[in-house]
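Need a sequence for this fold. Nothing fancy.
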């Protein structure tokens, strides 16, 4: 098959590439070991749709479930070819190329090479619809772009590229404009937390965006469990960076009710981060308050926090949290 892919006529090459998807895992691995990857990568440089489509499908099949093949495909020069395909005026090929880049970026050994290839800037341009084709970028394509960037964000060298390309602001705007309970926002929020937790520059840039705190508070209240976990993690980083500056801004958005709820029924990580953030937000100067209502809320909050601090999550604690939430929302 490798000889057919390398020396065969166009139709024979396409047929051979399509046959790879019908093979079992052992047969695919045997083909990869016999040198089938290199001619498939060469096919990516062809100028016709069918050859590129067949080669991309074949490479995806070889990469799926095999770290060795992911590395082999990257070493064979697939990344530059994939980036060129992403710039073609063809939506179907673009989506296949994005899927290929995503699966290759999931391999730790490939991340630095992909991050250094110019892929980050190109992905962000696609996400921002800077190309004519991007007017019709599908939801799945956007999801694959965010997922690939998330994979690459674990490489320190990728963070400056994301920031220089304006990726942080693009990401924040996408989250702000999207349904907070969606899978897309869940993945985007994970990327945002990865970026701001890796770079003080990124964290400061995020803090300066006026929509960030309202967006994160909304995500804590309305997001999926994973989204809530990432959102509260980012809020905690923001508050820790300068409590005096951001405490009031977070409270002004009505964050306490959602945080109390999260401290009881969120994931384990979300509960711990919510409790840590509540500790930073709570007003310890209850006696000096001139407002009886505020004083009453603070006393109730302190009692709830004492139970939460002791790790109590029984019916009494949950009831107190619910009563406290109702008070905070009045």
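Here you go.
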């Amino acid at each position: 098959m490798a000889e057919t892919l390398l020396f065969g006529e166009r139709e024979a090459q396409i047929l051979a590439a399509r046959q790879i998807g019908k093979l079992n895992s052992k047969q695919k691995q045997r083909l990869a070991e016999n040198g089938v990857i290199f001619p498939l990568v060469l096919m990516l440089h062809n100028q016709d749709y069918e050859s590129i489509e067949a080669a991309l499908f074949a490479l995806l099949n070889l990469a799926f479930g095999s770290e060795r093949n992911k590395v082999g495909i990257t070493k064979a020069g697939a990344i530059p070819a994939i980036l060129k395909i992403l710039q073609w005026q063809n939506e179907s090929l673009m989506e296949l190329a994005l899927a290929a880049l995503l699966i290759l970026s999931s391999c730790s050994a490939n991340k630095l090479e992909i991050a250094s290839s110019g892929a980050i800037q190109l992905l962000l341009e696609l996400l921002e619809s800077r190309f004519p084709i991007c007017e019709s970028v599908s939801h799945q394509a956007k999801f694959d772009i965010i997922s690939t960037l998330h994979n690459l964000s674990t490489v320190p060298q990728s963070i400056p590229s994301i920031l220089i390309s304006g990726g942080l602001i693009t990401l924040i705007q996408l989250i702000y404009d999207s349904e907070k309970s969606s899978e897309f926002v869940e993945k985007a929020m994970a990327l945002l937390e990865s970026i701001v937790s890796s770079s003080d520059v990124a964290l400061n840039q995020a803090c300066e965006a006026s929509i960030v705190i309202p967006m994160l508070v909304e995500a804590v209240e309305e997001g999926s469990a994973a989204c809530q976990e990432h959102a509260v993690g980012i809020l905690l980083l923001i508050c820790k960076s300068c409590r005096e500056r951001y405490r009031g801004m977070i409270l002004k958005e009505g964050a306490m009710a959602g945080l109390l709820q999260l401290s009881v029924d969120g994931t384990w990580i979300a509960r711990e981060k919510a409790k840590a953030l509540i500790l930073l937000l709570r007003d310890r100067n209850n006696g000096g308050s001139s407002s009886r209502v505020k004083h009453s809320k603070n006393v109730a909050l302190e009692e709830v926090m004492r139970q939460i601090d002791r790790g109590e999550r029984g019916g009494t604690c949950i009831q107190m949290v619910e009563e406290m939430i109702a008070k905070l929302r009045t």
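For context: The mean pLDDT is 87.
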